[in-house]
Amino acid sequence: MDSPTTNNHNHIHTHHLNGASTISQPSKKPKLLSSSFITPAEIHEEFSHHDPSVARINNGSFGCCPASVIAAQHRSQLHYLRQPDNFYFNELKKGILQSRTIIKDLVNAKHVDEISIVDNATTAAAIVLQHTAWSFHEGTFQKGDVVLMLHYAYGAVKKSMEAYVTRAGGHVIEVPLPFPVASNEEIVREFRKALERGKSEGKRIRLAVIDHVTSMPCVVIPVKELVQICREEGVEKVFIDAAHSIGCVDVDMEEIGADFYTSNLHKWFFCPPSIAFLYTRKIPKGGSELHHPVVSHEYGNGLAVESAWIGTRDYSAQLVVPAALEFVNRFQGGIEGIKKRNHDAVVEMGEMLAQSWGTHLGSPPDMCGSMIMVGLPTSLGIACDDDALGLRVHLREQFGVEVPIYYRPPRDGEVGCVTGYARISHQVYNKVDDYHKFRDAVNQLVNNVIFLKISLIDDSKYAEEI
User: Fold this and answer.
1) Cis omega (within 30 of 0) for bond into 274
2) Distance between CA 452 and CA 460 in Å, rounded?
3) 125 with 185: CB under 8 angstroms?
4) Which residues contact 124 (CB under 8 A, 6 or more apart)?
5) Is the Cα dihedral 79, 81, 85, 88 positive or negative?
6) How far apart are CA 251 and CA 249, in angstroms?
7) DSSP states of 438-454 as a string?
8) Which one of 33, 52, 271, 283 is CB 3.0 to 4.6 Å from 287, fit for a cystine?
9) How confident is the model over 420-456, as pLDDT tens digits?
């Protein structure tokens, strides 16, 4: 065991070779100490590696990483390659423990052992659902017991449900959610209905999988309220899939109260790909444990330690969380200030676009974080998923605009409704010109469609005359 060491977050740790630790005192979230904040010129320099010809208003998909954090990652990679044995035996797991400790403070978990670092939220979902499948196979859960998830769950999570839960004999129920959505009450109402369906015929709901921020369409879900409803209704465990949350919306493990919670750090917390955390509420001794799906030498030492070594690979993304935190703290208000400014800006840009196109937002501003859905002009004729994808590709290749497009099928009886929505993001590198470029591209496409229709009408009249 190494001697106790101190870091700049005022924790005193006792490090063990396997990455576990004891902490002498709880600490507060990391706070900014410097009074000198980053300038617009410095922000531009940090992201000068971005393609300047592209209006990048899709931070939600792949995130971003500033040059200072990329440099820290490169130093870590070279440090490993210089002397791999020393790096592994003396430095790697201590570095991962430091990253876990920072994350623990950021999300207000009680203990660092509740925080594991994994590649991404998809891996975290596989860990939780693999554990659920074992519970069915081992007879802890009965065939036909229910796992609940939102209809707008991420596609990879739906596939994991199929691979783990359905194959093991579980019954998956999807919660249908309205979109556009007008209030949290609409979501709560549909969630309660799904719980009633799940409990019908004496079935037990073993797990609820709830998004914190749905991906497409993007809406901030009232997770705290839904977790409380799950507790009241006897749902055994709750897993929050929050791929977009940390750095985008408020994240507090004690307030949310879920059993499992995951979020990526490469989307909205400026880490390089890929890194996510999985929070697992501490269970009494003897309780069933989660395990990493890649089994290596640390199997059986707890998920956090298993995840810290899954074989020889590049762990540098997991080691630069301190550098990402240092970057965040160059901004006024730290991550809280970034979140607020991103939210205010994305709402302002969303309203500007909707006004320009005569459409509407997909949700009220208080139901979005740093992303918002904006209705597209109906004249674009988006009538299926392929149309939405085609428009996205066209905007990228012909106009230099990167933005996801969502197709929302008309409900029964709806005529002339908005069927296409853009999911716009705002991050610190974005400028108003990015959104004006998108607006102008769509306006040009609308004008082209109108011109084409007029031309077709004229051609038709000419054909009749001859």
Assistant:
1) yes
2) 12
3) no
4) 118, 241, 260, 262, 276, 277, 278
5) positive
6) 6
7) HHHHHHHHHHHHHHHHH
8) 283
9) 999 999 999 999 999 999 999 999 999 987 655 444 4
For residue 185 the two structure tokens come to: 């009450």
Spell out the alpha helix ranges (H) of 24-181: 40-46, 59-62, 67-82, 84-86, 93-107, 121-137, 155-160, 167-168
The architecture (CATH level 2) of 86-282+289-328 comes to 3-Layer(aba) Sandwich (3.40)
* Residue that is written with structure tokens 């531009």 in the block: 44
Q: Which residues contact 273 (CB under 8 A, 6 or more apart)?
A: 62, 63, 65, 120, 266, 317
Contact between 371 and 218 under an 8 Å Cβ cutoff? The reply is yes
Beta bridge partners of 466: none
How far, rounded to the nearest angstrom, does the alpha carbon of residue 102 sit from its chain's CA centroid? 19
pTM: 0.88
Q: What is the CATH number that goes with domain 334-457?
A: 3.90.1150.10
What secondary structure letter does DSSP report for 366?
A: G
What was the pLDDT predicted at 15? Answer: 40
| Domain ranges for the chain | 86-282+289-328, 334-457
Identify whether the C-beta of residue 230 lies closer than 8 Å to the C-beta of residue 238: yes
At 50, list the tokens: 């971005």
Q: What is the pLDDT of residue 283?
A: 73
pLDDT tens for each residue of 240-278:
999 999 999 999 999 999 999 999 999 999 999 989 999
Strand partners, 116: 278
pLDDT at 287 over 70: no
Q: Are 169 and 143 in contact (CB under 8 A)?
A: yes
Q: What is the mean pLDDT of residues 355-362?
A: 97
**Cβ atoms 352, 361 nearer than 8 A:** no
The predicted pLDDT at position 8 comes to 40
Q: What is the pLDDT of residues 79-120, one digit of tens each?
A: 999 999 999 999 999 999 999 999 999 999 999 999 999 999
Give 372's strand partners.
424
Structural tokens at position 34 = 């410097």
Q: Return d(Cα 38, Cα 354) in angstroms, integer.
A: 32
Cα–Cα distances in Å, from 179 out to 8, 322, 364?
A: 45, 38, 11
* Residue 210: strand, helix, or coil: strand
Mean pLDDT of 10-21: 41
